[in-house]
Design goal:
Elements lengths: L1 E7 L3 E10 L2 E11 L3 E3 L4 E4 L1 H14 L7 E8 L17 E2 L5 H12 L2 H5 L5 H4 L6 H6 L1
């Protein structure tokens, strides 16, 4: 059995085809492609064009062209937490926000100043999780 393992990382995509024989995995071939991410506003904001992930994945599949028909299982790991806003057809609307982006703490702190958080979320206990909420200010700032 052949397994395609894919790791879509923050700064690179790694792929490998493994052969499972007698309860052990053996690397058949591997592929790696790095890509640049966008860091701006003094290092507080970070995103990436999702097309970079797609282009890297296609390049990896092409490098395995002679093995693709033998793949029976695909294992996928992706960059998280993050946000990729998409339209109804699955196309990205904006660059994907990466886990290192620092928009949400500022946005949620500003929101908390203007409204009682308990009125919105129900309890202070939930506030920690809300710091990861994303604000539309990201899209406005990027224009």
């Amino acid at each position: 059995m052949k397994i395609l393992a894919v790791d879509v990382g923050t700064t690179s995509l790694k792929m490998g085809i493994y052969s499972l024989t007698h309860r052990s995995l053996e690397m058949v071939r591997q592929f790696s492609k790095t890509y640049d991410i966008n860091i701006y506003n003094g290092g507080l904001f970070g995103d990436i064009e999702p097309e970079k992930w797609q282009q890297a994945f296609i390049a990896g599949c092409r490098s395995f062209e002679d093995l693709n028909a033998d793949v029976e299982v695909i294992a996928l790991s992706g960059t998280t937490p993050g946000l990729t806003a998409m339209d109804r057809d699955g196309r990205a609307l904006y660059p994907a926000i990466l886990m290192l982006d620092q928009h949400s703490p500022t946005a949620s702190a500003a929101y908390y100043r203007y409204r009682r958080f308990e009125d919105v979320a129900g309890s202070d206990r939930q506030y920690a999780g809300s710091r990861r909420l994303f604000s539309c200010q990201h899209f406005v700032a990027k224009g």
